[in-house]
Description:
By secondary structure, the chain is an alpha/beta fold. It contains 20 helices and 20 strands. It has helices spanning 43-49, 78-84, 96-99, 106-116, 122-135, 153-164, 183-200, 211-217, 235-240, 245-254, 318-325, 347-350, 364-367, 374-385, 391-404, 421-433, 451-468, 479-485, 503-508, 513-522, and strands spanning 3-14, 17-28, 32-36, 63-68, 71-72, 89-92, 171-175, 203-208, 220-225, 228-234, 268-283, 289-303, 307-311, 332-337, 340-341, 357-360, 439-443, 471-475, 488-493, 496-502. It is globular, with a radius of gyration of 25 Å.
Amino acid sequence: MTKLVEVRDLSVAFGDTTVVQGINFDIDAGETVALVGESGSGKTVTALSIPQLLPYPHASHPTGSIRLDGEEMVGAGGTKLLAMRGSVVSMIFQEPMTSLNPLHKIGKQVGEMLVLDGNLTRSRATARVHELFDLVGLDESVRIGAYPHELSGGQRQRVMIAMALAQEPKLLIADEPTTALDVTIQKQILKLLRDLQNHLNMALLLISHNLTVVRSLAQRICVMTHGEIVEQNTSRKIFKAPGHAYTRHLLGAEFMDLPPAANPDAPLIAQVENLTVRYALGRHWFGKQRFLDAVSGVSLRIREGHTVGIVGESGSGKTTLGMALLRMIPSEGRIVVIGRELHTLSKKQMKPLRRDLQIVFQDPYGSLSPRMTVGKIVGEGLRIHSGDLPIAQRDQRVADALIEVGLEEDMMNRYPHEFSGGERQRISIARALVVKPKLIVMDEPTSALDVSVQAQIVELLREVQRRYNLVYLFISHDLKVVRALAHDLVVMHEGSVVEQGDAGEIFDSPKHAYTRTLMDAAFMDEL
């Protein structure tokens, strides 16, 4: 096969720090190659070096050689780079919402590069946009006059793919293209990429830390850590017989053990009956109020020391259910937690109970104040709920909480931006634990983390639960993590519970068609 990409001895530095060193790999025409590794391993920097999209002057120019379709890219002038970008190499970025301009309609954004290229008039470009939308599976309901915020995550990613394919490139670079998507949408996007690749005979460079995605799509894999490729081989050989210790570490982190058994007769900590959350949508022309039932008639029982997994696609009502249980949003129905009827309490009456009901959010960077030190962030709950506690004792409790989650006492005076994603999530968990709660709602706490960091967080949550007999309401679309933590499972679809019961039984033999669809998408072996 013809070598479309030839990378030889590639090195990249940011200032005095070398982030990629001595990289060598090839991509054949029509082939899929995956770069895998943890955050900071150099995957994205390596990929961005091919079209020369590194953030100059913050990154020094790459050294070595990158030949793309026979042309040398390292040191190439602006005219050559413009000619290569789009027509020979194109890129899909991780988060489509931040990659698309919120002020411009999607049709204009896709057509813009066609017009700027100079080959098409605006009317022909508009017709080509319709062709591209058909190609990526965007039906007539998605108007080219729509704005990015009017689309779902999967639709936005399809728009990004349409934009990348506008000039039918020979190489498509996909940087974590499905990280933020539900498992069912993820499977659709991956199948779309596979079909488009076959249709256009296009090479694909896939960047991912999701080994399920890599296994289903890639023919060859390059494993990266600390800026170096430590192993590269066919996908089959990598998964069957990994040769490097780091590769074995990554694969081992993916296959987490089932959770330790919980007492089925443990006391009830929380009970929800016929819980409904309703949002007003406005009125019909004749005056009748319309509503959306985000959660409809949900009932569940949560026992001490148990983890209840809440799974389903975006918009299914998972997070809304967790927020309603904590009385953070209005709801109808009966909520009993630790013997108290929460639905009858006022906001003032709820305040003393807040220390027993904590939450860990999906994005630790967004939920931690950048202006506060870690010590103040973790100690905030103690200041509110234990105001009479002497400062020295409060600081000691904070230090103990940090140590308990695997951090160090001297980190108290540092700020959130000084930590990795996994460390920030540990800080969020420490903030919840420091007040000694009875129940913690975990809202997608591992979705943006590498597989090895996910495994560490899962092990931490298990240990803390065992030590304090905690209750977790674990909300996630990552069914592999849910399977490693949950004793009981609730499957939600369009605000309603379609299946619930023992987690092991549902994972082994799901009864509802929607549950089977989720399982098939989450544990796919092939597309």
